[in-house]
Amino acid sequence: MDAKESRMIAAAVRGDRNGHHAILELYGKQVFEQIARLVDSPLDAEELAQDTFVKAFRHISSFDESKAAFGTWISRVAYNCTINHLKRKKPRLVPFHAAAELYTAHPPATEPVCDEDTDEEKRIQLLEQSIEHLLPDEKALLTFYYYENRSMRDIAYIMDTEPNILSSRLYRIRRKLYKIIKIKQNID
Fold it and tell me: What distance in Å separates the CA atoms of residue 95 and residue 99, rounded to the nearest whole number?
């Protein structure tokens, strides 16, 4: 951690508004984007980002730089706020036939996900639509790993688990996405 960040955190621990403001300036966008990838509503994302910082400032004295960088710590607070919010929401119902098809044996990994004549834009759109069918913690793992390029060590800290467990989960999520994409291709 650099000296500027250390001073900023120390000021926030003392309750100094300038320290809080500096943290908001430095991490506000990152936290909002992380949350926005996991929730459907921009208003919910804004509210959860505010809740994240309120909670972070309330518990900032518990930050331990020997365990993680401050950005990783605040991402963990944001992740927990978001997952708790999503758990309180009514779960989405998946049609029975679609759910049953998701859990059948998966085709070999060498089979292409999209036809050769499908353009890149359609494949990206199909992937994004398929990601929406994942559970919140699955979307979070994909977000941290692929969108934010975080290390497995950092993601493990944020999600409060072990890196080797995350590697297995990431593999299962990719298989699940493959199945969802195949189902969507057969429907269209």
Answer: 6
Nearest one of 128, 129, 145, 149 to 137, comparing CA atoms:
145
Q: Cα(51)–Cα(57) distance, rounded to whole angstroms?
A: 10
| pTM of the complete model | 0.77
User: What is the Cα 127 distance to its own chain's centre?
Assistant: 16
CB 45 within 8 A of CB 35: yes
Which amino acid is present at 121? Answer: E
Q: Is 104 exposed, middle or buried (0-12, 13-18, 19+ CB in 10 A)?
A: exposed
- Cβ contacts of 9 within 8 Å, gap of 6 or more: 1, 19, 23, 60, 63, 70
Model confidence band, residue 36 (pLDDT cutoffs 50, 70, 90): very high
Q: Taking 60 as the threshold, does the pLDDT of residue 160 lie above it?
A: yes
Instruction: Please give the residue that has the higher pLDDT: either 148 or 92.
Output: 148
The more confident residue out of 4 and 159 is 159
Task: Identify the burial level of 31 via C-beta atoms within 10 angstroms of its C-beta, where 0-12 means exposed, 13-18 middle and 19 or more buried.
Answer: buried
The answer, yes or no, to whether residue 92 has pLDDT greater than 60, is: no
> What burial class does residue 97 get, using C-beta atoms within 10 Å of its C-beta: 0-12 exposed, 13-18 middle, 19+ buried?
exposed
